[in-house]
Design a protein that fits this description.
Layout (H helix, E strand, L loop, with lengths): L3 H16 L4 H12 L3 E8 L6 E5 L3 H9 L6 H6 L7 E3 H4 L2 H4 L3 H7 L6 E9 L3 E9 L6 H41 L4 E5 L5 E4 L1 H9 L3 E4 L2 E4 L2 H15 L9 E5 L8 E8 L12 E7 L9 H8 L3 H11 L4 H8 L3 H15 L4 H12 L8
Antiparallel strand pairs: 1-2, 1-5, 3-4, 4-5, 6-7, 6-12, 8-9, 10-11, 11-12
């Protein structure tokens, strides 16, 4: 009989793990202790040979690796449980004969060394090809393990199922968040997310490079700052206005930040992000700060041009020089080739890019330069 206190503690742990996936191993350890198991796993079981272990408590990492590499294809139990309807609780004896199982390579070379004998599984939910499954395993000497573990899982079915779905949803949202931030890192202009106090919550790669130059905008202990106190005040005032919930217009604004180096000022545009979350609660006020350095020489890497248009090295070099304002003769001089050869390369570049004039080619190449993604970065 599972006590009410034990059950309540497990339910709390299950929902804690739903919101913080890295707490699943601790939750599984509690579940194993309550069931009298020495191992508890949360796995993805598939009808194919693949059955990755997502989280585990009590399992030797070396044994997990061996399972993933070889023994999963010999395991008749997880493949069978992957076909069961959601909410199904089954023991290994429900799926295969114990006498047959103990005669297999899978049992003798992998199960027995882990000191397993009895196994109870719960199918949490499934789609067309795979299922999320909780597995509890105990040594042969465990008393009444099957009955206790089945009773415990039966009491926890709705909680474990919901928690596993929440974990999956959180993982999807996390992947989207990281994908969005990675996309911002591909932009050549600086992008900074700030709170109402001008504190940077995120800065893309271009913004970090601008900060490192300490020439017009940076970050100190109190948030974004400019080269002078007056411009810092103006910058932070604009951020505060852009993140104010009273600013119903939500227009944001722009300003130029002078640079100690004497180079042309940085162009800064601030855009408010006022939106409701999917749950109807107001999202924390955030503003997006775009920083453009007019002195930046925008030219994509030649590797990127070759990858996008199938250019040769020479053609990519000519295209890059043309995009920077060099004429054919100047490009030929820099490359140490005859103007006629440079002109031949340029005509091939026109054909490969679908352009017909140098200005059109320069516009295209400089547009590509606004992205600084992984190809030849």
């Amino acid at each position: 009989m599972i006590s009410n206190d034990t059950l309540a503690s497990l339910i709390d742990a299950v929902y804690d793990a739903a919101l913080d996936a890295w707490r699943w191993p601790d939750t599984l350890a509690q579940l194993a202790a309550a069931a009298g198991a020495n191992v508890a796993d949360l796995v993805i079981a598939e009808s194919s040979h693949n059955a990755p272990t997502v989280f585990s408590a009590g399992m030797d990492p070396v044994a997990i690796e061996a399972y993933q590499k070889y023994y999963n294809r010999l395991d008749p139990i997880r493949r069978a449980i992957a076909q069961k309807p959601a909410g199904t609780i089954a023991t290994d004896r429900d799926i295969v004969s114990k006498d047959w199982l103990t005669s297999t390579e899978f049992y003798n070379d992998w199960v027995r060394p882990q000191d397993f004998y009895d196994c109870t599984m719960l199918t949490l939910f499934r789609d067309a090809t795979r299922a999320r499954v909780i597995c509890l395993a105990a040594p042969e000497r465990a008393d009444a393990f099957s009955a206790r573990s089945s009773e415990l899982l039966g009491q926890l079915v709705p909680h474990l199922e919901r928690a596993a779905r929440v974990t999956l949803k959180m993982a999807e949202l996390d992947a989207l968040r990281h994908g969005g931030l990675a996309a911002l890192d591909c932009l050549s202009e600086g992008v900074i997310l700030v709170n109402p106090h001008a504190q940077a919550l995120f800065a893309n790669r271009a913004a970090e490079a601008i900060f490192a130059r300490a020439d017009g905008i940076g970050v100190d202990a109190s948030g974004l700052c400019a080269a002078s106190s007056a411009q810092t005040t103006a910058l932070r005032r604009l951020i505060a206005m852009s993140t104010s919930r009273e600013d119903s217009a939500g227009t944001g604004g722009s300003l130029l930040l002078e640079r100690p180096s004497g180079r042309r000022p940085l162009s800064v545009t601030i855009v408010p992000m006022h939106r409701e979350t999917e749950w109807g609660f107001p999202a924390p006020p955030i503003a997006i700060v775009f920083v453009v350095d007019p002195e930046r020489k925008g030219a994509p890497s030649e590797a990127r041009l070759r990858a996008l248009f199938g250019m040769t090295r020479a053609e990519a070099t000519v295209a890059s020089l043309i995009s920077k304002g060099s004429g054919v003769k100047a490009a030929a001089r820099q490359l140490g080739i005859a103007p006629s050869t440079a002109r031949t390369h340029l005509h091939r570049v026109f054909d490969k890019t679908g352009t017909t004039r140098q200005a059109e080619l320069a516009h295209l190449v400089n547009h590509i330069a606004s992205l600084s993604g992984p190809i030849g970065k």
